[in-house]
């Protein structure tokens, strides 16, 4: 796991940017604290920051060269089947000079070109320069676990693992109003957009081939939206899932450094931990909780799993003061505005976990592929012809008279009743966007001083819901849209801020493809979400996990914004002079949002306030 960046110059003017290569590489120091180096050859430059995981010796350093310097590569990620690939190459007479997966990829590319990507099982962002052909090949992994951003104009193409590396080249940059418009609705910026105009995200399963002034973008992988359905019985499907998960976890335990797991006490992380514990008696597990706040603290469940799996467990119990003390560093590591508030907890958990291990396995991805979210259960009910829909319509007027927020059981239930009744009246594409969003398009229009009047990219993003069939289409959309833009972005950004590698066994592409082929009823019914996952591991997990309701990785945001962070908000977001000087947001809309948050019925105002606050801090740093 590392940080990469590079320059491809189309002419001598673009070549000037190679002078900034070392600076750009330095911006990624947190991603790779163990080694750094740059390489350049007139019109091309590559930079690398290394976090040593496999072959920690100097032989594994990058930029790496093979075949007398013909191929040069920078690579961020891990290839979990590299040993088998290495053996296959050795049988063909290839000699290796390191034990790293990086060298395996390079020799595979030398033999097969971009087709080599089909053989890689893992996550990655990579760039390979062929000095003989004078061509550059750039690719991102199948599901978008590792990030890659790029910028192209008439003089050069720049790329990097994070926005900070791109901006270090000295671009004359400005905010993309289109991206901001969607950020205000989603609390993240959906790919290929970024908050900087002209900088794009390479999409999952995409690659770039560059030669001379020609840049060709193509897909080397796409998860099938409508795969051939599995004909396995439910029991056979459970056995197949258990086999694939066992293989996935075992592959992801290969490391030459200490390894552990994140353990929240939910089903997903508990499954990963239970499998990993079978392959080592030295497994360390880590969870995070809140002192004195039982509504948000769930470390008790994590401790039950740790005890059953006999792991070396550490629970980080945090006070409000300690959590908030991490705010400045947390905000500083946000490379573009990103307002999933649980990112702060992931940052702290990663930072504290890194004091014990260098690699952690997590349960991310299971909710998206197995149907673990409230919206999945709600969607199923919306499609039914039962009495619930009528009941929700009757309950909505009452709910609208009650306080609504995510910060309490009753207020959260009232919020859910209203959103349910609103969503069920929409068609699939509009319903999906509504459930994925925290704010409406009207809210974004009112908040922005300069309204965005460009093409509506929602049609492009939601096109896979054309001809909607069943909830498998909904899960496919989550895997394509929410997963890489929100969940994986959060985990990569916050873990790499502390130089911690996080591996996600549920997102082995073979697991994802198999689960996506299963019928809906194997995953969700009126009584249970993630049905096949829960049933497969029911006998090995504590029974208490099956009696609890699902809770996301949340924090008491509303309370913090109104108390501990109130002075900070007053000095940034709620300062009229600053807002009007920024010429981005309408003060009247900000003031209205402030009033809503401090009212007795805050609804989701705290999430909107948080998004604006994060944007303001990011803007202060870069503008």
UniProtKB/TrEMBL annotation:
It comes from the Bacteria. Residues 2-213 form the Glutamine amidotransferase type-2 domain. CDD domains: Asn_synthase_B_C (cd01991), AsnB (cd00712). Pathway: Amino-acid biosynthesis; L-asparagine biosynthesis; L-asparagine from L-aspartate (L-Gln route): step 1/1. It comes from Reichenbachiella agarivorans. The keyword ATP-binding applies. Its EC number is 6.3.5.4. PANTHER family: ASPARAGINE SYNTHETASE, ASPARAGINE SYNTHETASE (GLUTAMINE-HYDROLYZING). The gene is asnB. It is an enzyme of class 6 (ligase). It catalyses: L-aspartate + L-glutamine + ATP + H2O = L-asparagine + L-glutamate + AMP + diphosphate + H(+). Keywords: ATP-binding, Glutamine amidotransferase, Ligase, Nucleotide-binding. SUPFAM superfamilies: Adenine nucleotide alpha hydrolases-like (SSF52402), N-terminal nucleophile aminohydrolases (Ntn hydrolases) (SSF56235). This is asparagine synthase (glutamine-hydrolyzing).
């Amino acid at each position: 796991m590392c940080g990469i960046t590079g320059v491809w110059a189309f002419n001598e003017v673009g070549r000037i940017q190679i002078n900034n290569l070392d600076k750009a590489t330095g911006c990624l120091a947190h991603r790779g604290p163990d080694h750094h180096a740059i390489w350049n050859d007139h019109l091309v430059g590559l930079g690398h920051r290394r976090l040593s995981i496999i072959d920690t010796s100097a032989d594994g350093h990058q930029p790496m060269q093979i075949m007398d310097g013909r191929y040069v590569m920078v690579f961020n990620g891990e290839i979990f089947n590299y040993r088998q690939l290495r053996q296959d190459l050795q049988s063909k007479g290839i000699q290796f000079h390191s034990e790293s997966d990086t060298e395996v990829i390079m020799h595979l590319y030398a033999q097969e070109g971009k087709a080599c990507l089909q053989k890689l099982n893992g996550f990655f962002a990579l760039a390979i320069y062929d000095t003989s052909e004078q061509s550059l090949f750039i690719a991102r992994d199948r599901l978008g676990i590792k990030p890659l951003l790029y910028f192209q104009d008439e003089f050069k193409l720049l790329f990097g693992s994070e926005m900070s590396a791109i901006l270090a080249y000295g671009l004359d940059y400005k905010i993309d109003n289109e991206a901001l418009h969607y950020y205000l609705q989603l609390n993240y910026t959906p790919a290929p957009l970024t908050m900087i105009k002209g900088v794009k995200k390479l999409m999952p399963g995409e690659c770039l081939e560059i030669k001379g002034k020609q840049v060709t973008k193509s897909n080397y992988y796409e998860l099938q939206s409508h795969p051939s359905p599995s004909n396995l019985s439910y029991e056979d499907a459970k056995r197949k899932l258990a086999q694939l998960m066992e293989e996935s976890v075992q592959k992801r335990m290969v490391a030459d450094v200490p390894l552990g797991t994140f353990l929240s006490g939910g089903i997903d992380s508990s499954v990963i931990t239970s499998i990993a514990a079978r392959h080592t008696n030295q497994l360390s597990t880590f969870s995070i909780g809140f002192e004195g706040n039982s509504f948000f603290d769930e470390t008790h469940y994590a401790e039950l799993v740790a005890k059953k799996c006999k792991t070396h467990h550490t629970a980080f119990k945090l006070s409000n003061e300690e959590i908030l003390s991490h705010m400045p560093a947390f905000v500083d590591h946000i490379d573009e505005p990103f307002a999933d508030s649980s990112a702060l907890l992931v940052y702290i958990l990663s930072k504290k976990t890194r004091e014990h291990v260098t690699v952690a396995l997590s349960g991310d991805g299971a909710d998206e592929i197995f149907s673990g979210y409230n919206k999945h259960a709600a969607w199923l009910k919306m499609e039914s012809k039962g009495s619930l829909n009528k009941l929700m319509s009757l309950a909505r007027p009452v709910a609208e008279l009650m306080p609504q927020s995510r910060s309490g059981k009753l207020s959260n239930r009232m919020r859910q009743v209203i959103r349910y009744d609103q969503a069920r009246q929409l068609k699939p594409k509009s319903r999906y966007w509504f459930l994925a969003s925290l704010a409406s398009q009207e809210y974004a229009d009112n908040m922005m001083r300069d309204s965005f009047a460009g093409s509506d990219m929602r049609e492009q993003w939601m096109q896979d819901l054309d001809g909607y069939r069943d909830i498998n289409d909904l899960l496919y959309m989550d895997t394509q849209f929410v997963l890489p833009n929100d969940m994986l972005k959060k985990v990569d950004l916050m873990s790499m801020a502390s130089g911690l590698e996080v591996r996600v066994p549920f997102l082995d592409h073979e697991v994802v493809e198999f689960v996506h082929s299963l019928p809906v009823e194997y995953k969700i019914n009126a009584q249970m979400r993630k049905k096949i996952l829960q049933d497969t591991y029911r006998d090995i997990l504590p029974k208490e996990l099956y009696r609890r309701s699902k809770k996301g990785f949340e924090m008491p945001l509303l309370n913090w914004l109104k108390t501990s962070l109130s002075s900070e908000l007053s000095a940034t977001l709620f300062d009229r002079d600053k807002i009007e000087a920024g010429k981005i947001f309408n003060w009247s809309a900000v003031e209205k949002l402030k009033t809503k948050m401090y009212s007795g019925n805050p609804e989701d105002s705290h999430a909107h306030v948080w998004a604006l606050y994060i944007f303001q801090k990011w803007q202060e740093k870069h503008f």
